[in-house]
Design brief:
Strand order of the largest sheet: 1-20-19-18-17
Radius of gyration: 24 Å
Shape: globular
Number of strands: 23
CATH superfamily of the largest domain: TolB, C-terminal domain
Order of helices and strands: HEEEEEEEEEEEEEEEEEEEEHEEE
Number of helices: 2
Largest sheet: 5 strands, mixed
Distance between the termini: 72 Å
CATH architecture of the largest domain: 6 Propeller
Structural class: mainly beta
Oligomer: single chain
CATH topology of the largest domain: Neuraminidase
CATH class of the largest domain: Mainly Beta
């Protein structure tokens, strides 16, 4: 069968248009793609000793003193350390049924989460006297704050902005990267508008844009202990002895990194 020349011209035009549309779709998809996080580098400033019985769950600087909250039933404490990681004053021991989690200082109060008992303990920051107890409906994992709200993680992909007076949820933010939602968000530290979090079970910290929940940067601490001169892997002692502790010290612009029952706290500067 023969076809008129117009038919072939029409067919060629349609193929060309489809090819152009395909290129446009590819460009549009490329423009709409979520960028992979940028990896940040660090350098070690100093290595400090850390109590290997301290199952670290929360870490935060208050001037020149360090607030540490630890976990495990029957062993959970809240205590204050000086710049040489020596205890200042007395430590607060939690009841046997309470597993301590993240802690943060806000407006003269230290807030301490518990893992599964739905309790939030509120202490006077100067005396460590417990002033009240609040209710939290989920598991408690990480805790930090910005200028107006507390920020809570529960081990999943959501983080919660919370009223410091009532602990009512003000806002829920889903954390995600270029692969999708990111779970196991754990210990938290809020620094200059950015949220830093370690991912439970990994030797890495992510930097989260709080306005969107997008992970913008990552920091790989897989070699941190070896670089700090530690001769053994805490995971060889217990598989639960993972990285879990981020504290930013503003007057030195450095971060302090540790883990559950790690022998060291490592001061680092992000490049």
């Amino acid at each position: 069968m023969r076809y008129p020349i117009q038919f072939f011209l029409y067919g060629s035009l349609m193929v060309l248009l489809q090819a152009c549309n395909g290129n446009n779709d590819a460009e549009n998809n490329k423009e709409g793609a979520i960028a992979a996080p940028t990896e940040l580098q660090y350098e070690i400033v100093k290595v400090y000793p850390h109590d290997t019985t301290a199952y670290t769950q929360g870490l935060e600087w208050n001037g020149n003193t360090l607030i540490e909250s630890t976990g495990l039933e029957g062993k959970s404490i809240l205590h204050i350390l000086d710049t040489n990681q020596k205890q200042v004053g007395t430590k607060i021991k939690l009841s046997k049924e309470d597993f301590g989690e993240g802690a943060t200082l806000f407006n003269g109060k230290i807030y301490q989460l518990t893992w599964k008992s739905h309790k939030v303990f509120v202490y006077n920051a100067k005396t460590l006297v417990k002033e009240k107890e609040l209710f939290w409906p989920y598991e408690g994992w990480g805790l930090t704050h910005n200028d107006s709200s507390l920020i809570v993680s529960t081990g999943e992909s959501n983080i919660y902005m919370v009223d410091p007076i009532t602990f009512a949820i003000q806002k829920t933010i889903g954390v995600y990267n270029n692969f999708g939602y990111l779970s196991n968000i754990n210990e938290l530290e809020y620094v200059n508008g950015k949220l830093y979090s370690n991912i439970y079970g990994r030797n890495s910290v992510v930097v989260i844009d709080l306005t969107t929940g997008l992970v913008t940067h990552t920091i790989d601490f897989g070699n941190l202990l070896a670089q700090a001169g530690v001769k053994y892997d805490p995971l060889s002692v217990d598989v639960g002895y993972v990285l879990n502790g981020i504290a930013y010290k503003s007057n030195t612009n450095t971060f302090f990194i540790t883990g559950k029952c790690w022998p060291v706290i490592v001061e680092i500067k992000i490049k």
